[in-house]
Each structure stands twice: as structure tokens, then as C-alpha cells.
Amino acid sequence: MRALIVGGSGGIGRSLVDRLSKRDDITEVMGTWYRHPPEPLKKVRWFPLDATSGENVEQLAAETGDLDLLINCIGLLHREDKGPEKTIVHADAEFFLDNIRVNTLPTLLLAKHFMKLLKKSERPVFAAVSARVGSIEENRLGGWYSYRASKAALNMVLKTLAVEWRVKVPNGCVAALHPGTSDTRLSKPFQRNVPPEKLFSTDRTAGQLLSVIDKLTPEKTGRFWSWDGTELPW
Ligand SMILES: NC(=O)c1ccc[n+]([C@@H]2O[C@H](COP(=O)([O-])OP(=O)(O)OC[C@H]3O[C@@H](n4cnc5c(N)ncnc54)[C@H](OP(=O)(O)O)[C@@H]3O)[C@@H](O)[C@H]2O)c1
What we know:
Strand 6 (173-178), helix 6 and strand 7 (223-226) form a beta-alpha-beta unit. The protein is globular. It has six helices and eight strands. An eight-stranded mixed β-sheet has the order 3-2-1-4-5-6-7-8, with helices on both faces. It is an alpha/beta fold. The site of NADP nicotinamide-adenine-dinucleotide phosphate has 27 residues, from helix 1. NADP nicotinamide-adenine-dinucleotide phosphate binds next to helix 1.
């Protein structure tokens, strides 16, 4: 099996790369980085990538070759000057568009350019790390407008792709994944009120997500999975 972890330089992405590179059933792991170049690792090929650029994603697809598993782990929750909105009064056009650009657009571009490379696999899986707060049905607390909207849009991209794959890649599975709160740069400013047992190490998160992925079948395509294998409502 050959796997590509997009956002392999991030907290969750890097732990997925580490775990996959130690598995006997995986022959090669590829990972991408954007601002933080990772050190070389056995069995791992690294690629620089701006996943918001269609040209960059197309170029990456030309270099990786056929794949069995692609997981997109890219994400944005806060920038140096801005965090998720507590109220609509904090909404900001640029921050909203940044969220869509980083949390939604890359999966659309990856789906476009990697379908032909995944199609040849016996059991291809295309997954993206989403977030529970992107569930429209589960939204009871409000706030975080831009992040929530970008993850809800990501979920719609994945659901729509699953519909297209039913005909074009019938042996494949498309999945949205919720990782649980994990100790990374992205969650750092929001960890204060998280009880220690609910803040996962990235290694634990990677293990849990891979257990979910290992159980995916074509019949389970187009669904939203939590880290513990339960299904989340859209
Ligand atoms: N951590 C949590 O508690 C939590 C909870 C729910 C959902 N999630 C989701 O889980 C995923 C992984 O998050 P994380 O916590 O591991 O975050 P992280 O450590 O901040 O990693 C983010 C990754 O995104 C990459 N990236 C950002 N912009 C990019 C671009 N334009 N092109 C290519 N790569 C880009 C970063 O690359 P560089 O570092 O090289 O710049 C990094 O690899 C995200 O989708 C996040 O929304 C996380």
C-alpha cells in the first residue's frame, strides 16, 4: 500500500506519517509540508506543497504515482492576529476567506487531481480531517463562524465526492474524520478548559484515526466518523 499524508508536517499529520511508516503493509509513505520542513525519515518521501494552489496540487499528483490512501490533515483555526469569532460582531471578510481557503479548498483540489491515481487501487480511501464543530446538526454552542462554515463546506465536498465515486471509483471509500481534541499548534490556545483525559496526544489520535480508516469499506463511503468509530451527523 502507498499512502499520502497532506499536511504531514502538522501535529496530527506527522503522527500519521510516523505510524504508517512503521507498518509492514505500507510500502511507501509520502508527506507534504508547507512552512515547516520535516527532517528525513525512513520509508518517507517529503514534498513541499501549497495545497491552496491548483497548480501545486497538480504538480504533486504528477510526482507521487498511484496511491491507496490519501489523508488530508491541513487546517487553520487561528492566525497570529485573529482567532475564531465568539460573536458575529467579530466576523471579518479576510479571516472567513482564509478559513475556506485552507480548510475547504485543498480537499476539492486533491479530489480533482488524485482520483485517477487512487482509482487503480483495489480499496482506495480518500479522507480528510474535518471537525465535529462542522456538523450543522450538532451546533448548539454557536460561535466560531468561519471555522464551522469551512468545515461544513469541507464535509459537503466529501459527501459530493462520495456520490461521484459510487460510479467512478465504486471500490473506493470517501470519509470525513473528527480527530478529537489533540495537542497541536492548532488547538494550543483553546486547551485551557479541556480536561486532561480529553486532550489526546497526536500519536493517540493517529492510532485512533487509522483504526477507523482500517475498517472503511465501499459500503461505508460518504460518512462522517468520530475518532472512536461512531458516526457523526452532518
Ligand atoms: N488539533 C485538534 O484538536 C483538532 C480538532 C478538530 C479538528 N482538527 C483538524 O485536524 C487537522 C490537523 O490539525 P492539527 O491540529 O494537526 O494542526 P497543525 O498542527 O496546525 O497542522 C496544520 C497543517 O496544515 C498545513 N498547512 C497549512 N496551510 C497549508 C497550505 N496552504 N498548504 C499546505 N499545507 C498547509 C501545515 O503545514 P506547515 O506546518 O508546514 O505550515 C500543517 O502541516 C486540521 O484539519 C484541523 O482542523 C484538529
